[in-house]
Amino acid sequence: MGATDTRLQLITTLIDIGALVLAGTLAIQLISSGKLDLGSRRPTASQTEKAKALAAKLRGKSSSTVSLKLRDHELEVSSDVVAPEGITVGFKDVGGLQAIGEQLQRNIILPLSRPELFVQSKLLRPPKGILLHGPPGTGKTMLAKAVAAEAKFSFICLNPARLLSKWYGESNKFADAYFSLAHKLAPSILFIDEIDCIFRTRGTRGGGGHEHEATAMLKAQFLSLWDGLLSPSAPQIVVIAATNSPDSVDPAVLRRLPLSFEVPLPDVDGRADVLRLLLRDEPLAREVDGEAPGGCCFSPWTCARSH
User: Fold this and answer.
1) Which residue, 298, 292, 294, 266, is CA-closest to 279?
2) Which of 9, 148, 252, 278 could tie 155 with a disulfide, CB 3.0–4.6 Å?
3) Domains of the chain: which residue ranges?
4) Could you say which DSSP state residue 42 is in?
5) What are φ and ψ of residue 304, in 5° steps?
6) If you classify domain 79-262 with CATH, what class do you get?
7) Nearest one of 133, 108, 142 to 274, comparing CA atoms
8) Cα dist. 57→8, 83, 143, 193 in Å?
9) Can you tell me whether residue 242 is helix, strand or coil?
């Protein structure tokens, strides 16, 4: 029995050695043919295409911005970037929210466009975070895009799916990539839609009694990166968050969103304004009066419904 066991161990050892030799030979062949890249800095075809796509988006910006050196994860999130020239929404295109638009222009766009007027006072500086909350479909995303378009800022829409990667550590790398890309493309706006899905209230009152370690680490890193925007030497980056349920958002996140606006459902005049914007380029019958006083008599049906 002893000799048999020794023979089996010898055969197993020879098989393992043969497998290692075969694997090493295949690896050498792949490296020599260029199909296997072990830490080289040569960009792949997909990375080159993404860099070209980002440069095409930012063609209106300076050449130094277009020729930035981007890391792999920054190239991945570059698909979520919209140049100011690519945003077709302005405050004039947001119906029924003129009052909120005026406040955003006064509190955000004016200090960003004329910083020399507000540099002497910390209280007058534009906030680094804005919260837009209200029912679905009330125009929160349109308001965020309008701010970026009016301020001529790059618009980066954070994709929650990237921050919820199944691979351990990838979420943290993508979080860092969003903020580092926002720094490189500054002035920029980082928009986080449905922020309550990512940063729910910790504890039993919010999204459960316990939190996974990876999720807790992601939140801690994200908040730390966010705090870096508060330094006086930080570039012009504004985080705009939107949610349908502000009570479900982590208080630590709400503290970093000092300027908050409720975007309610439109009233009668607001609905008339929305309808007027939707029909401004449509051919209408002569009897349809879109400029009727009171803003409700677009048609007999609309008048009857509103009254």
Assistant:
1) 298
2) 148
3) 79-262, 268-306
4) P
5) -65, -40
6) alpha beta
7) 142
8) 64, 6, 21, 22
9) strand
Say which residues have a Cβ less than 8 Å from residue 219's Cβ, sequence separation at least 6: 199, 250, 252
pLDDT in tens, 181-196: 998 888 889 999 999 8
Cα-based angle 26, 28, 29 (whole degrees, multiple of 5): 65
pLDDT surpassing 70 at residue 1: no
b/e code 55-65 from CB counts within 10 Å (16+ = b): bebbeebeeee
Euclidean distance between CA atoms 87 and 194, whole angstroms: 20
Per-residue pLDDT tens over the stretch 248-296: 998 989 988 989 999 999 888 888 888 888 888 778 777 776 665 444 4
**CA separation for the pair 125, 281 (Å, rounded):** 39
**Alpha carbon distance 257, 130 (integer Å):** 5
Contact between residue 191 and residue 144 where contact means Cβ atoms under 8 Å apart: yes
Distance CA 266, CA 180 (A): 37
Q: Is the peptide bond before 300 cis (omega within 30 degrees of 0)?
A: no
Q: In the numeric block, which tokens belong to residue 201?
A: 């209230």
Residue carrying the six token digits 């981007």: 70
